[in-house]
Amino acid sequence: GWTAMPLDARFSTVRIKESNLGNFVCDVMRRYHNADCTIMASGTIRGDQVYPPGVVRIKDITTCFPFEDPVVCLRVKGQAIWDALENGVSTYPALEGRFPQVSNIVFEFDPSREPGKRLNFMQIGGRPCNPEDVYVLVTRGYMGRGKDG
Description:
GO biological process, one term: nucleotide catabolic process
Number of strands: 11
Radius of gyration: 15 Å
Largest sheet: 4 strands, mixed
Structural class: alpha+beta
CATH topology: 5'-nucleotidase,  domain 2
Pfam families: 5_nucleotid_C
Family: Belongs to the 5'-nucleotidase family.
Strand order of the largest sheet: 6-11-3-7
CATH architecture: Alpha-Beta Complex
Order of helices and strands: EEHHEEEHEHEEEEEH
Distance between the termini: 31 Å
CATH superfamily: 5'-Nucleotidase, C-terminal domain
GO molecular function: hydrolase activity
Protein name: 5'-Nucleotidase C-terminal domain-containing protein
Number of helices: 5
Shape: globular
């Protein structure tokens, strides 16, 4: 395949903020599995570079995603998604791999607040997330097993 835009996989981007590469991968995962939302720990994204517009080679993909970690679909309550995002921003601004890249989720957090109490709000599909509602979440196996989320 190819890309018309540079794709940002730098640690200094993906580990502290939204990345167009993270958005793209999370969107593909969500749409392929027809899920409500996706969360992927940014530590999944390696390569630490900006991939220029043009042809995307297999080498680029394997450099950026070197781990054989399956995509998993989970049925989880909204509270579990909230908790995963809280965990994802708990060490911000440290360049740790837990920072969340997402699809169909909008959230805001305040890094001046203590860890575990940083999220201000979260929406899934443009609507406030109900802690008791069940959502289909797509993630990677590592996070699905409770790591970094």
